[in-house]
Design brief:
- By secondary structure, this protein is mostly beta strands.
- The chain has one helix and 29 strands.
């Protein structure tokens, strides 16, 4: 059994670049805490929070309440393994019944819970999950490397059936948005702190955070005193003004604003090794790095983490399926088939790919895509297919699967080893012949046009000769 605590406290006012958002305040405190027992990881956990005296903040559109949430997740030995204390608010643009677009503010409520939050380990991502209001939820999964931890992506689900927040929404029901966490990695045994507000935008959502304190994968049950500060908290040096004499006048100087920081490119995914068995014999081998491209208003790239991915599927004589499950949040299925099954010379190929994104809190399907009319990665039966270069599989208009360092054999695996590989054209040493062949063809075409031109001129001259 694991135990966890939730603390709910009112916000403290302060200056901020965002209306109604305090920029720098002390840590939230609580005189009342509620402890709830949790079952096995990923099971539902009950939590309650008693409201202290709320502090009303004056925002752009009026008064509203804002609350801080403190989550302290315990492991089986009742030691803290994940700690988070933060405040956040969401600005959401939605379409109203009359076709206009309006922006509303979604705040954390005093009854926020954290069901589904998990500690994580070397093979499983940590998860901070919060449920609040009338069917709203927010979560962030945090991955661990050898020396650092880092937020991967956030998931916000807002419910437009909440008429207090969306009084005239045209679209009714829950809406889920994925947001890539732009923050960089944090050293293990170090707590991430950001008192000043910072903003993360995606699609029609603006997320505002402040008074953030987070440490994942806490060691020895004690939150570290060593801090990593966000850029908003770091002091900026004031411009140096040279001394002037009493009777001298100088024009005021304005420091140039810093250049915007370009977004950090998403790194290529790690390569995973997957296999299936039929009885005691290996029947399917795959080595591949996988990346999803979810094209909504803005592209979202999701790398599949081999450390948290489990392989399943089925082998057969004419069809084989590999199903990959990354942390119960992303499912990818690959189906292979044999061409000309009755012919003496047979080939296999990739026939179908399906992708499903799940809500990690309750397992519900957020989005799914399928393409069962592919003809990719073909090779002779008994051999393997290899392509080290990046390849793109178009699943539908919004979903792509990128593969890296691919080596796969879905049929006739012997001695748990890949057979001789047939390489893709992108990897082939003959790839350089393509531009040469195109150049030669264009040269012949030019010569043909020139010859036709000469013949045409001679015929025209012959027509003007006297008889």
């Amino acid at each position: 059994m694991t135990a966890s605590e939730v603390f709910v406290a009112p916000a403290r006012p302060g200056r901020s670049p965002c209306p109604g958002v305090p920029a720098a305040a002390g840590s939230s405190s609580s005189t009342t805490t509620t402890t709830a027992a949790m079952g096995p990881r990923r099971s539902a956990a009950s939590s309650r929070g008693r409201l202290l005296l709320p502090l009303l903040l004056l925002g752009v559109s009026g008064f509203f309440q804002s609350y801080a949430v403190e989550v302290d997740i315990k492991d089986a030995s009742n030691a803290t393994c994940l700690y988070a204390n933060w405040m956040m608010r969401f600005l959401i643009t939605y379409e109203s019944n009359n076709g206009d677009y309006k922006t509303t503010t979604l705040n954390l409520s005093s009854s926020a819970t954290h069901n589904g939050s998990v500690c994580g380990n070397d093979t499983q991502a940590a998860l901070v999950a919060v449920q609040f209001g009338e069917g709203h939820s927010w979560s962030i999964n945090i991955t661990k490397n050898n020396e650092t931890y880092q937020g991967d992506f956030m998931t916000l689900t807002y419910n437009t059936n909440d008429t207090a927040v969306f009084p005239d929404a045209k679209r009714k029901g829950p809406v889920t948005i994925f947001i890539k966490d732009p923050a960089g990695p944090v050293q293990l045994n170090t707590v991430f702190v950001c008192h000043n507000s910072f903003v993360i935008e995606a699609e029609n959502i603006t997320q505002i955070f402040w008074n953030v304190t987070v440490q994942a994968f806490v060691q020895n049950g004690t939150v570290s005193k060593k801090e990593t500060r966000c850029p908003a908290d770091r002091p900026t040096s004031a411009p140096t003004v040279p001394p002037t004499s009493a009777n001298a006048t100088t024009a005021p100087t304005t420091a140039a604003p810093p250049a915007p920081t370009p977004p950090k490119p998403v790194e290529n995914p790690d390569t995973g090794n997957y296999s299936l068995k039929s009885g005691n014999k290996t029947c399917f081998l795959a080595t591949v790095g996988l990346q999803l491209n979810i094209s909504q208003d803005k592209p979202l790239l999701i790398n599949i983490n081999p450390k948290t991915t489990v392989a399943d599927g089925a082998c057969g004589n004419t069809t084989a399926t590999l199903k990959l499950n990354d942390g119960n949040s992303t499912l990818i299925g690959f189906t292979f088939a044999v061409k000309n099954a009755s012919a003496s010379v047979q080939k296999f190929y990739l026939r179908e790919v399906n992708v499903t994104l799940l809500n990690r809190l309750n397992g519900s399907v957020i989005s799914s895509a399928d393409n069962n009319n592919l003809s990719k990665w073909d090779a002779f039966l008994g051999s393997s297919y290899m392509c080290r270069k990046e390849q793109t599989l178009q699943i539908n208009e919004n979903v792509q699967v990128h593969t890296f360092n691919l080596w796969i054999q879905p049929f006739l695996v012997e001695a748990n080893k890949f057979a001789t590989a047939e390489e893709c054209l992108a990897d082939s040493d003959l790839n350089f012949l393509i531009p040469i062949a195109v150049g030669v063809a264009l040269g012949f075409l030019i010569i043909l046009v020139f010859i036709s031109y000469i013949i045409g001129r001679r015929k025209s001259r012959t027509g003007y000769q006297s008889v």
